[in-house]
Amino acid sequence: MTKRVAFVTGGNGGIGSAICRELAKQGHSVVAGYFPPEKESAEAWQKQMHDEGFAIGLAAVDVSSFEDCERAVAEIGDEFGSVDILVNCAGITRDGTLKKMPEANWKAVISTNLDSAFNVTRHVVNGMLDKGWGRIINIASVNGQRGQFGQANYSAAKAGMHGFTMAVALETAAKGITVNTVSPGYIATAMTEAMPEEVLQSIVNSVPMRRMGKPEEIANTVAWLASEENAYTTGANIPVNGGLFTSH
Ligand code: NDP
């Protein structure tokens, strides 16, 4: 197989870690983007990956900043080569009902979860177009597909992310690039572990498969979308949600 350069934003998070491991297993050169203030924990994460047998590169990048993404993508290019596989995985939640939502919580979620897709992809896409090959995978959410109480900001950002996927898929389809969204249901990571136990239990009860998803189950779908074999699926929104939400 062809060895590619893969960049995973939020690569040291719960789902991001599984994606990094899986892409490394496929033989790619993997770089994990981490939130710059978290340098120390990112380096500890990198050591843990190394101990597990995965050599993963690190790149400090604040995905909510267009300029910082430009800098980080240029540095990745110098150190590892231009990015062939981009996984936009960094994300945050700032939940609360709309009637009480502070503007700061709207803006933080939109800039980290939606502007980020533009901020990073904008600096990566020309290299892919020049090469005539690329894979872009945007990690959205089931709550962007169906809406969720207390998540007007998050649902809007994740729905917007798939709009971005569809448009960029059309712009790049003739150039060997596929662009797809993966919409996870509830996955067992720090993001969901932060929820109260009774909320978690009611979520599990609402999932037809009666369990949370595993980060590896997202990573497997991402690895397939990133593969050489996936040359014909583009602009799709792939649900990985245990049957929680089905759509045509
Ligand atoms: P985590 O919190 O474990 O991972 C999120 C990652 O994003 C962390 O590494 C975090 O860094 C990073 N991040 C946050 N803000 C920034 C920023 N401004 N710049 C760069 N990196 C940043 O969450 P998950 O692994 O659970 O989530 C990964 C993705 O999957 C997210 O986009 C999330 O919305 C989505 N998702 C998750 C679901 C779930 O059930 N877990 C369900 C559906 C979608 P740090 O921790 O250092 O701040």
Task: Please explain how this structure is put together.
With 248 residues, this protein is of the alpha/beta class. It has a single domain, classed as NAD(P)-binding Rossmann-like Domain (Rossmann fold), CATH 3.40.50.720. 49% of the residues lie in helices and 15% in strands. It has helices at residues 14-25, 39-51, 66-80, 103-131, 142-146, 152-172, 190-193, 197-206, 215-226; strands at residues 5-8, 29-34, 57-60, 85-88, 134-139, 177-184, 237-240. The chain has a 7-stranded parallel beta sheet, with helices on both faces. Strand 4 (85-88), helix 4 and strand 5 form a beta-alpha-beta unit. The two termini are 34 Å apart. The model has no long low-confidence stretch (mean pLDDT 97). It binds NADPH dihydro-nicotinamide-adenine-dinucleotide phosphate (NDP). NADPH dihydro-nicotinamide-adenine-dinucleotide phosphate binds next to helix 1, strand 2 and helix 7.
